[in-house]
Structures are given as C-alpha cells and as structure tokens.
Amino acid sequence: MLRTIHFHRVSYIFIYKLGSGKSVLKVRIDMKFGNSFPSTEVLTDQVTQEMSDNISQLQSQKFDWKNYKYSSGSDRIKQLLHSQLDKAPSVDDTLPRTVYESVKFSLPGRYEVIQVLGKGSYGTVCSVRDKKNPSNPYSIAVKKITNIFYREILLKRAIRELKFINYFRGHKNIVSLIDIELVTEKPYDGLYCYQELIDYDLAKVIHSSVQLTDFHIRHFFYQILCGIKYIHSADVIHRDLKPGNILCTLNGTLKICDFGLARGVAPKYFAANQSRHDITNYVATRWYRAPELILSQKMYDKSIDMWSAGCILAEFYGRKPKFMGKDSMHQIYEIIKVLGSPSKKLLSSFGSIKAWNMCNSATPPHKKVEWRDIYPFACPDAIDLLDRLLRWEASDRLKVQESIEHPFLNEVRHPEDEPICPWGAFDFSYEENLTSMQRLREYLINEVSQFKEERNCKLSTPHVYKNITIIEEPEQL
C-alpha cells in the first residue's frame, strides 16, 4: 500500500531546503511492510534509488546553502534546543492507556502502534502515530526496554543513553529523544523511549545493490564525522560506532544513535579513575573494534571511534565489513592480513598476555596490503583517508577534525555544519554514587522526572496505570 512518511516536528529545522525555499518534508514510499524492517530487495528497488537520487541532487543542483544548513555557532544551537521543547507532544495524557498484548506494549490512548520494527533481548521497537493530531499524523519510534529494574547492565545503559541523547540534543547528525516514561504495570513494565522515526539504518543502505558514487560516500561520511566531532568535543567516546547504529532518512541525513556504551575521556575523569576502563566483549561490535581494545591493558581514547569510522568508510567501498573476525583473536588476524603484522615494540607496549603471545610467535610476519589494491575503484583521496584512519598505532590515526579537513571531503564540507558541543565536557561524576541496584533505580527514576520537567510536563513516578483497554496486535501493513 501507499504510505506517507512525515518527518517529526523536532527535526524540521534539520530538513534540506532547495534554493527556491521549498522544504523537502514528506516522502512517499510504495512498499509493503512485513514483520520487521523492509527487506533489502524492497529497499534496493524502491527506496535506496530515491535516496541516491536525492543525494545526487546536492551535487547537480545549485542550492542555497545558507537555507540548506541548519545553523552554526553555540548560541544558535542553544536557541534551537529551547525552541524544540514546545514542538513535540508529551506522552502524558488523560486518556486511558491501550495495551497491545502480543508485543506487551502499554501506550497512552492518544498513540496507536503502526508497525513492529524489531525485537531483541533488550526489548521491542515499534512505530506509532499520534491520533490526537490527525491533521499532523507524523510517526514516532518507541523503544521499550524490558526488565529495566532487574538487570544492572540495562539500568546503566539506559541512564547513559538518556543523559547523552539529552546532552547532545539539537545536532542534526545525532538522533533526538522526544519523550520517555516508566511503566510499572506488569507485564508491560519497562522504560519507553519515544524517538524520531528514521527510515532505515546505514547498514541497509550499504548492503543494498544501488550504486554508491564517491559523492554519496563523501556526503555520508562527512555527516558521520560531524556527529563524532560533536560527541568528542564533549570528551565523550561513543564506543559502538557501526552502520547499524547510524540511522538514515530518505533525503540522506544520517543520525548517530545508541549511546548505551558511551564513556567519558575528560582529564578529570581519568584522574578519578586510575584503573583501566571497563573493556568488555560488548564494547564496540567486534568487526569495528580497534585492535587496542583487544590487545592492550592500557587506557584507550577517542581514537577507537576513529578506527570504527575507518571501518565504516571501507565498508562503503567493499559493501561488506572488511574485518569479519569470528572471535577476538581471529579479529586481530583479519586485521593483520590487511595492515600487516604490528611491530614487536607496539605489541610489547600493549602489556597483555595476548600481545605477549603474538610478540613471541614463530609465525612469519605478514606484509601490508595496499588499500588501492583492495579497492582499486576508490579515488586516491579515499584511499589516503582509509590508510590514515586504519592504523595499528592509535596515536597515528587522524583525529576527527583532521579527518574532516582531509581533501576527500572538500567537495561536501561546510564548516558551519561542524559545531562543537556548547555545554562543554560531559560530567561523569554522577556515576560515583551509583554503587547499588537501588541507587541505580532511584537515579533512573530521577532522570525520567527531570527530563519531563524540562519539557514542562507533570509526571508522577512511579506510575501504575489502571484504566487499560486490551486489544489485539495491529494489522501489519
């Protein structure tokens, strides 16, 4: 069936504008939705080509770049952030709540579930529409995190996610959080995060069959770096950058999401935490994980995000992940096959058993393979940028600003799109007191309340909903 996607009001300030002043606010998609995201075939044949054409227009047409770009400068960003508070509806409502039994969702009566977008161990994601505003029926994505009060790791990730998305709100390349609520009525209990609905993730775009030109890749990669710059300027590292955590609209706008693993790198944070950061198996999905996360016992820094960015750039050209390790050490050997064997001096500096074993291995060293031999169709500037991002030595990798200034991006670069976070370094001192499950629960409740107070909403937390109507799962479109 034919469906119209309406961009949420929160993101209106981020929409591209043609020189004539006509805003690109709506996109019509002719497709049939299944139980999850549209299939790669549907995305390829009917959507990705339109996305590709939209991006190509940026190259072929003369745009009014002042209107096309959203703003510049810290003061302007602050102004935009405050103006957003009145644009998005609150989830709180006097109407009865409606429960969707098959997905264990409980929503205010004004919202209707349209589509189940995905399910995982963390919970469920659905798209919903606001029935209270039929004249403006834009869609919202609702992510429900289940078992939030009983699993420490979920509590910590939820708190981080809320704090970071709220802290970074306003940048066009970082996903926006519209509202949040805690539901305690079983079996619908959980943390409900209301976010702007984005069409696809970057993985679906990369793995489609539509040709991506150098201009497309420049356009996408520049936005990723602008988002990273904003994050790094707050002394935060994302730690889980990958195409699946970068959302993509049909007009080609990218938005970084999933801040549940993000951490701080501010000097005062290091001073208060002399021990090594908690590097666990889930930090940075393996294929995008910097080698020092696997081999080193020392502190890591923002360069791990730049390694991940380099992996994404390689994936644009290869249309699949370049380093596809089956486990941690196999991941290292996949890297060795391309970058060559690391020096014994570097391995010794890592200070781990794994690095020591590699240093004393009798295996003959591998020689480096040139990126131009791997991707002969890539332009020389892209090859050079790849080479300077994907290096064994973290200190040898380009920093985000250096990457933005690389000649590869000259054609798409606009400095007014490269602001830094106006709030300065993120303060992680709140974590010092979160030493028990009870304190984590209390802190999450307080975060939800504080977020809603900033939106001038009244929230009684915890809230147990009594007036519930049971209906079946919505018909899949």
UniProtKB/TrEMBL annotation:
Transferase among keywords? yes
Give the UniProt family note: Belongs to the protein kinase superfamily.
Q: Which residues bind ATP?
A: K144
List the keywords (alphabetical): ATP-binding, Kinase, Nucleotide-binding, Serine/threonine-protein kinase, Transferase
**Organism domain of life:** Eukaryota
Gene Ontology biological process terms from the UniProt entry: ascospore wall assembly; protein localization to ascospore wall
- Gene Ontology molecular function: ATP binding; MAP kinase activity
Q: Which Pfam families does the record cross-reference, listed alphabetically?
A: Pkinase
- Protein kinase domain location is 111-409
Which PROSITE patterns does the UniProt entry name for this protein? Answer: PROTEIN_KINASE_ATP, PROTEIN_KINASE_DOM, PROTEIN_KINASE_ST
Magnesium recorded as keyword: no
Designated name of the protein? Protein kinase domain-containing protein
Any one GO CC term of the record? prospore membrane leading edge
